[in-house]
Amino acid sequence: MMVKRWTVGELTHYVRQLIDTDYRLQELEVEGEVSNLRVPGSGHAYFTLKDEQAQLSCVMWRDAVQAQRRLPRDGERVIALGSVGVYEAGGKYQLYCRALLPVGEGDLYRRFIALKERLEAEGWFAPERKRPLPERPRTIGVVTGEGTAALQDVLNVIRRRYPLARVILSPTPVQGEAAPPQIVAALRAVSLQPDVDLVLLVRGGGSIEDLWCFNDERVVRAVAESAVPVITGVGHEIDFTLVDFAADQRAPTPSAAAELATPLTVDELGVAVERAQSALETLALMALRERRQRVDEGAGALQALSPLAAIEEGRGRVESLAGRASRVVSHALALRRERLEGLAKTLQAMSPGAVLDRGYALVYGPDGGVLRRAADVSPGDRLHITLREGELDADVVGGKAEDG
Amino acid sequence: MSFEGALAELEGIVSRLEAGGVPLEEMLALFERGQGLVSFCNQALDQAELQVERLSVPSTDSPDEE
Question: What is the ipTM of this complex?
Fold first, then answer.
């Protein structure tokens, strides 16, 4: 009979598959005593669970270690939740541990897991339900126990970071059987106040039983259904309650919730105001400068299009026309002057003076008129004679009148 | 006027000026308004004091404090 010969790798891999496919070895609980627990630099925890008969190697990955409220001490009895698997390279099977619970808390934890799964399946924790938080909340509702340290922490943080806000405290018991309906009522009342932008649901640290009302289904639904966004800050960093999953944002502590509620501090806002102021001044200056530049450009363009050039050109044409006109006119004047002089000469020649020059005389009768006919005078009449040089008076002594 | 309202208006004015195309007269008016908002905001920041009110919720059961 042929015996199959395996390689070590093949065989180990086969065993791993056997274990991986056995549902009884997945998602199980083992009770035992912790020993030799160590957490090296990787952050993963390694330990052994044992009882009187046997030992079981266990590994817990870093994420699970960090989610653990506390790690058990050696010798402590615990319930380990996880799955059995094979680490092929090391040739050993081990428990991959998801959570470690003190033996007493097992039942509570199972209820927590069951409710969480149901609410998750119903969609109460869906990411699309999460609403954005306001950047500058005007009014912050705070749901918590009156006079608690958690309330003081919240008020201190808001006062320091963002005293511009108004806080409305909606007090409620935050532990005990009777607390859940009161938490629900306090949450509803404050979320319906006018101007409330978001609500903080907070509580200081405590045992898992103390915090249990924040796992109550009514409270979880009220958080998910709140009219305004809710930030939860319940217990310490490691505490997760179901309201954390339903909240729009989960904070590890009440103080951290108050910080999330006030993303901008007054100091940062002061810087924002300063920035706005300098932007305002720069923009106004730039706008003025731009307009001045446009005016300058317009002036330049206007200059280029100015009618002065055309005026200059027109003036030149007018001047040349005027020159031509004056030449024409003075020529015409000269011609006329010449003619005038000619005429003057002619006239001169015809003047009585010129006739007298030639030896003629002008004779005026007694009536003062020029005497042309001898018959017009009689002897004894006084005549007046103008010569070229001088004048004479003469009397008529006789004459002969010619006919005709 | 609330601080938030003033700051939001101030930011609105700055972005309007940044966008440009604002007529000169309006720009000067916006600038003046902005300066006023700046001093209002600074004053609000300087004088801010947290105001805490308490809501009385009709108690459904005996108080059970932490």
Answer: 0.71
